[in-house]
């Protein structure tokens, strides 16, 4: 997944196959094995990023584990938590390796209309910006005495975050529409600078990955011994 | 090249006031025109007219004709005007919507349907012209304000439009960023591009332009050489003049807030490095520095929005570690840069009441006093979102003061404001100090800081680089060494320092 210069469709295919592999795995030992492949990949990226990602995943995984222990058994809980961890870590790895534009481009190459892939990439790109704005709104409100600590009695106060955020999102959307219009988004006859071709090497890679997952699936099901 | 004849425009079809009323203007090839006016004078609307967003994007009533290269814009489309007029927007975050600088520049070229090799050649040329080559692979969001502005310019410049219109190109930039953009524009002008820059406050750019147009309430008040504009710019408060209300400089009081060894790190980047400083009771302290120097991060430690692991913040000698920011609001009120970050009530009155502490005695009287002081009586029943930028700022500051803090902290209060408001604000801050309030302003607007502060602290790359009293030789030398203070000339009292939107 790290390889630069891969066609985004290759990355997309490999990512999907990875997710499929995790989903079909039933044996807990293999879930651990998959984790051992994914985790180094994650840490191969920026170390702080990986830590951040793990911190993001852990609470959710813990909740699932606790629920699993209470409602089923420890074994099921371990399997559930591991599978969830694998899936989330894999998705994070996927989005690290694939920039939103590439994701959009691969959709476009697969025949989706340009508008669709553009909306997809742009909305992904503005997520961090909206997050930053939310941070600023929280700071501004707390600094004038609005108590936003997570307590039941503070719940009604969350309109103090929601309304400024919505208004800003609308303003941003209008400005963005203006900027796009001014740069010819609506103009017919758009050309695309980046052209992609899936190389022979990549076809081989996808095919082998597909075979591995298929064999693994068959073996898990007990069709082959 | 562009001519506007008897233009009237209003945003909705009926009953709205006319934003532009009878504009007649001819823009000639090679002009570098500065369009200026107070907030609400119709400047941005004017910009939208020039690239066809009016009448094609905005609904509304347009009377008169805008003709570009002999063609009426009514008969063209915005996309059709792509290679004639480039518009650089005020908000760079909205204008830059691609994931890398390179694809940002490519976007317009792709819209034109050029073939990839031609696009690559044009990207390379544009990047060379604006010295952007090192940034091509970066995400526009990771750039500094000045760099973002250059990329925004590049994204329209690559289409080789004969005319480029810039809406507040210097807004939100610190002096260094503004200088960077200013040089690029000067260079473009020299090479024959027609430029129209729209600004609400004067700055050094007045020296660069070939023509100056002053708008007021939708009408042209002045159109001529920049040298002849001096009197009218003063009269319109487009160049702020701060009254020297240095009545009784703050007596050195006791320390009200003390910060010791505060550091802050985000993803291995040290934003603040071991900062120690003291705020004295009853003073106006200005914390100055470039954008990105760590000023805002610094003041977020004043009320515990951020907490330093090693350092301590003492308010009146007491560590604030255990106090929530919302409780600190009764002692230290911080008003951040963008008033839109806090408005959520339907009237100004409710908005201001949000921070009121019902238990504090004299709350009602204090509120009435605030209404008078900030001149809010007429605005109380309006929606905060309908106000002008200056009015919004007044409401935002009043809504922080309603909790009766002893210390008021303002983050970049001058950004996006016109000269008239700055004069008002300077007066307000001085009268608040006379009431015993301690005031800290964080700004890159040196003129403003010098005019009202009792003491300056310079922050540079996350450290306190020095402190000084404004007006002294030592202070000037310190500021000059930070490259905050540009060469000032008598023609532009603000020099290159501290212009914003």
SSE blueprint:
The complex is a heterodimer of chains A (225) and B (501).
Chain A: H1 8-24, H2 28-44, H3 47-71, H4 74-97, H5 100-109, H6 114-143, H7 159-182, H8 200-221
Chain B: E1 2-10, E2 20-27, E3 32-36, H1 43-50, H2 53-56, E4 61-68, E5 71-72, E6 85-88, H3 92-95, H4 101-111, H5 116-129, H6 145-157, E7 163-167, H7 175-190, E8 194-199, E9 211-216, E10 219-224, H8 230-235, E11 255-266, E12 269-280, E13 284-288, H9 295-299, E14 312-315, E15 318-319, H10 325-328, E16 332-335, H11 348-353, H12 363-373, H13 389-401, E17 407-411, H14 419-434, E18 438-443, H15 446-452, E19 455-460, E20 463-468, H16 473-481
Helix pairs in contact in B: 4-5, 4-6, 6-7
Question: What structural keywords apply?
Answer:
heterodimer, A: 225 residues, mainly alpha, 2 domains, 8 helices, flat, B: 501 residues, alpha/beta, six-stranded mixed β-sheet, 16 helices, 20 strands, 29% helix, globular, disordered C terminus
């Amino acid at each position: 997944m790290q390889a630069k210069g891969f066609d985004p469709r290759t990355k997309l295919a490999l990512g999907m196959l990875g997710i499929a592999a995790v989903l079909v795995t039933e044996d807990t030992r293999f879930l651990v094995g998959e984790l051992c492949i994914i985790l180094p990949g994650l840490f191969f990226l920026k170390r702080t990023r990986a830590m951040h990602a793990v911190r993001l995943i852990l609470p959710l995984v813990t909740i699932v584990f606790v629920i699993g222990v209470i409602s089923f058994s420890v074994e099921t809980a371990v399997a559930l938590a591991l599978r969830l961890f694998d899936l989330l870590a894999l998705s994070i790895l996927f989005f690290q390796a694939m920039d939103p534009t590439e994701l959009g481009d691969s959709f476009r190459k697969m025949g989706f209309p340009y508008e669709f892939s553009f909306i997809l990439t742009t909305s992904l790109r503005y997520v961090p910006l909206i997050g930053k704005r939310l941070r600023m709104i929280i700071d501004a409100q707390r600094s004038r005495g609005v108590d936003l600590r997570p307590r039941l009695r503070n719940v009604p106060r969350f309109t103090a975050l929601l309304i400024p955020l919505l208004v800003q999102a609308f303003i941003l959307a209008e400005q963005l529409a203006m900027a796009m219009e001014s740069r010819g988004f609506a103009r017919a006859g758009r050309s695309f600078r980046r052209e992609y071709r899936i190389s022979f090497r990549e076809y081989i890679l996808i095919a082998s990955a597909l075979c591995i997952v298929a064999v693994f699936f068959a073996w898990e099901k007990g069709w082959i011994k | 090249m562009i001519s506007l004849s008897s233009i009237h425009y209003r945003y909705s079809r009926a009953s709205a006031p006319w934003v532009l009323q009878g504009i007649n203007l001819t823009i000639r090839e090679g002009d570098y025109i500065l369009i200026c006016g107070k907030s609400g004078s119709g400047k941005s609307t004017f910009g939208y007219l020039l690239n066809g967003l009016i009448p094609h994007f905005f609904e509304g009533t347009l009377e008169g004709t805008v003709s570009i290269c002999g063609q009426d814009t009514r008969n063209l489309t915005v996309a059709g005007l792509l290679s004639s007029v480039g518009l650089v927007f005020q908000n760079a975050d909205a204008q830059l919507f691609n994931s890398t600088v390179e694809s940002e520049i490519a976007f317009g070229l792709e819209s034109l349907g050029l073939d990839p090799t031609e696009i690559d050649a044009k990207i390379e040329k544009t990047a060379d012209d604006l010295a952007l080559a090192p940034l091509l692979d970066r995400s526009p969001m990771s750039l500094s304000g000045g760099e973002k502005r250059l990329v925004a310019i590049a994204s329209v410049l690559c289409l080789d439009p004969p005319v480029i219109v810039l809406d507040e190109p210097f807004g939100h930039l610190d002096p260094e960023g503004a200088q960077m953009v200013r040089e690029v524009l000067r260079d473009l002008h020299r090479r024959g591009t027609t430029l129209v820059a729209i600004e609400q406050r004067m700055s050094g750019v007045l020296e660069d332009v070939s023509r100056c147009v002053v708008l007021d309430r939708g009408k042209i008040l002045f159109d001529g050489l920049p040298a002849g504009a001096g009197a009218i710019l003063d009269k319109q408060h487009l160049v702020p003049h701060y009254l020297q209300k240095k009545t009784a400089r703050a007596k050195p009081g006791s320390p009200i807030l003390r910060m010791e060894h505060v550091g802050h790190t985000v993803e291995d980047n040290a934003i603040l490095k071991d900062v120690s400083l003291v705020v004295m009771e009853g003073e106006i302290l200005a914390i100055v520095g470039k954008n990105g120097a760590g000023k805002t991060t610094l003041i977020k430690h004043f009320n515990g929005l951020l907490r330093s692991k090693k350092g301590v913040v003492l308010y009146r000698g007491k560590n604030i570690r255990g106090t929530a920011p919302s409780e600190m609001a009764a002692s230290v009120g911080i008003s951040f840069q963008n008033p839109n970050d806090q408005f959520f009530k339907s009237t100004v009155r409710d908005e201001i009441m949000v921070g009121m502490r019902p238990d504090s005695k004299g709350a009602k009287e204090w509120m009435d006093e605030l209404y008078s002081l900030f001149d809010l009586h007429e605005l109380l029943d309006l929606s905060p979102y309908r106000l002008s930028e200056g009015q919004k700022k007044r409401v935002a500051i009043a809504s922080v003061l309603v909790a009766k803090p002893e210390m008021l902290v303002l983050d970049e209060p001058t950004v996006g404001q016109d000269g008239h408001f700055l004069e008002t604000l300077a007066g307000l801050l001085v009268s608040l100090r006379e009431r015993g309030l301690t005031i800290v302003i964080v700004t890159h607007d040196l003129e403003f800081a010098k005019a009202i502060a009792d003491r300056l602290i310079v922050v540079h790359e996350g450290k306190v680089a020095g402190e000084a009293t404004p007006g002294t030789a030592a202070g000037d030398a310190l500021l000059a060494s930070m490259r905050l203070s540009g060469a000032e000339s008598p023609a532009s009292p603000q020099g290159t320092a501290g212009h914003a939107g």
